Amino acid sequence: MKHRTFFWFFFPTGMAMLLFIALPILSVVTQSLFTPHEAVLVTVETCTPFKCTEETAIDQEATAAIRAAEPLGRFVGLDIYFDRGHLAIIEVSEAWRARVSFADFLSKLNNLPFYRAIAFTLAFTFIVTPLVILMGLVIALAVNTLHAKLKGIVIFFSLLPFVITPLIGALVLFWMIDSRGILGNALQWLAGDPTLSLKASTGLMWISLMVYGVWHAAPFAFVIFYAGLQTLPMDQLEAAQIDGASRFQRLRYVIVPHLMPLVTFVALIQLMDNFRV
Question: What range defines the domain where residue 231 resides?
Fold first, then answer.
């Protein structure tokens, strides 16, 4: 009876996981082993009383017949994972053999699309996540010290970046870093170079995206930490104050240990979220 109850409780969840997780993953892996068929090209010769010309055209019937015979495409196995657009095994081997130094090898590796994307993902994740936690904690501590009448409006404005949808936020950032936008124009003015563009510089673009990531996610950490501060045991805080502990010592030995489970929670959520950037 116990196992039967467990089965019927688990059955809806299991079916949902099978239909929406397992089967799509299996389908994607299967399709990744095939590549679309190339169009069949034919040379058509057209003659007029004056001259003959040759044109290359797609044989629609032959192409359709091949694609109908093999709907998934041409089987290539794991070769597609090793081409230049993915793991680029040949290019990596050549870069390693032709390296002048390890920095030179990393520079060449960064020119490959897959490894450049990996580098950005790792940099974004492990830079933005600590900054989000730090900014969220600083904002929570600052708001917690405000007068009760000011807390409501400050919390409202602090949550605005988190409320704004990523699409709208990305468009605002795109316009701001444009050469005619407030940030792009200000950077040109400060550098004295009217041709300077944030979009043309990989490093500046990475920094802009990281700043946006912190700006968008910090309110989430702020809400979590602010809620945790409301459960802070005041007797421990008062005892530390009576013992002569400074503000930094109270933060380090009382507040931070109390918030550590929430710090772990925010870090895990941010890591999962930032890895999808």
Answer: 120-274
Whether residue 161 contacts residue 219, with contact meaning beta carbons closer than 8 Å, is answered with yes
Distance CA 277, CA 127 (A): 13
27 belongs to a structural domain: no
How many residues are listed for the chain in this entry? 277
**Coil vs helix vs strand at 43:** strand
The residue type at 248: F
Tens digit of each residue's pLDDT (9 = 90 or more) over 180-197: 888 888 888 888 877 777
Contact indicator for 237, 254 with CB cutoff of 8 Å: yes
pLDDT digits (tens, 9 = 90+) for 23-63: 999 999 999 888 888 888 888 777 777 777 878 888 888 88
Residue 252 identity (one-letter amino acid): R
For helices 256-274 and 113-144, give the axis angle rounded to 10 degrees. Answer: 150
Task: In whole angstroms, give the CA distance from residue 29 to residue 21.
Answer: 12
